[in-house]
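In this section we walk through a basic example: taking a raw amino acid sequence and producing a predicted 3D structure, encoded as discrete structure tokens. The instruction is simple. Fold the sequence below.
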Amino acid sequence: MSEGAAYVYVTYIRTTQEKLWAYLTTPEFTREYWFGCTAESDFRAGSSWKLIYPDGKLADSGEILEADPPRRLVIRWRNEWKPENKAEGYTRCTMELEAADGAIKLTITHALEKPLPRSLMIEAVSGGWPKVLSNLKSVLETGAPALGKPY
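The resulting token sequence is shown next.
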């Protein structure tokens, strides 16, 4: 992967790697914390991947590049609904799950596949990931999302 714009987010969630993996890869679970959106894939390397809005419209699409349950998931990811983000091409989203003192450390690295000094897509995910992951953490630890409204 070329050097370019990137966003990294780290959070610690009191759960197991297996349960966190299930929440990252099961449509019924993604709906709970991703503001009604579902991630559709069989989450095997080479498989297609889609993020679908609650109204059925395509939000993002791509391909599963790596899947090592319950430790690592890499998605080639392109925004489909915002022309200026789509024009930047694909990004690579790496999700790493590791045990850390009674919790699971989740590291998300979302980076452009081509070098750009500034990226509208990376700016967008830097605002979106904290909301999505706050909801994920809250759902897994308390049973309810932290935020009720999408971006």
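Looking at the output, two observations stand out. Residues 30 and 38 are 5 Å apart (CA to CA). The chain has a mean pLDDT of 93. In the next section we compare this with other chains.
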